[in-house]
Design a protein that fits this description.
Length: 126
């Protein structure tokens, strides 16, 4: 059985999305004629990532952010775990970008057993 699922996200910045996917180890393909397809349906996407031994996962820009487009029956990843990892990496990169623009510098970073990230930042004098 195959079925394309579309998951709405709050991801709005394409560059940060690409950076998050690359940081997670995926190669991102960008182009005009990219598609995710199943037996019954084809969906046009803006970005694709290859998943080993699986169909690709696509990302389509909507008016409220990017949507994850995939046939999860044909992908060797857990949908919830993939989505959570991507959202965490995107949020991390977004926070680091914003704080860097505000003059903060990373002093220390730690991850705990529950995969929470703790950051110690310092703002330099102007």
């Amino acid at each position: 059985m195959s079925h394309i699922s579309v998951v709405q996200t709050k991801i709005i910045d394409r560059d940060l999305l690409v950076a998050a996917l690359e940081k997670l180890g995926y190669t991102v393909t960008e182009g005009e004629d990219l598609r995710v397809q199943s037996a019954e349906r084809t969906v046009k996407v803006d970005l694709l990532i290859a998943v080993p031994y699986s169909d690709p996962i696509g990302f389509h820009k909507g008016k409220n952010g990017y949507r994850i487009v995939a046939d999860w029956f044909r992908i060797q990843l857990d949908q919830k775990q993939f989505t959570q990892s991507l959202l965490q990496q995107y949020a991390y990169l977004s926070v680091m970008k914003t704080l860097g623009e505000q003059g903060f510098h990373l002093i220390e970073e730690q991850s705990d057993e529950r995969n929470r990230i703790h950051l110690l930042l310092r703002r330099t004098g102007e």
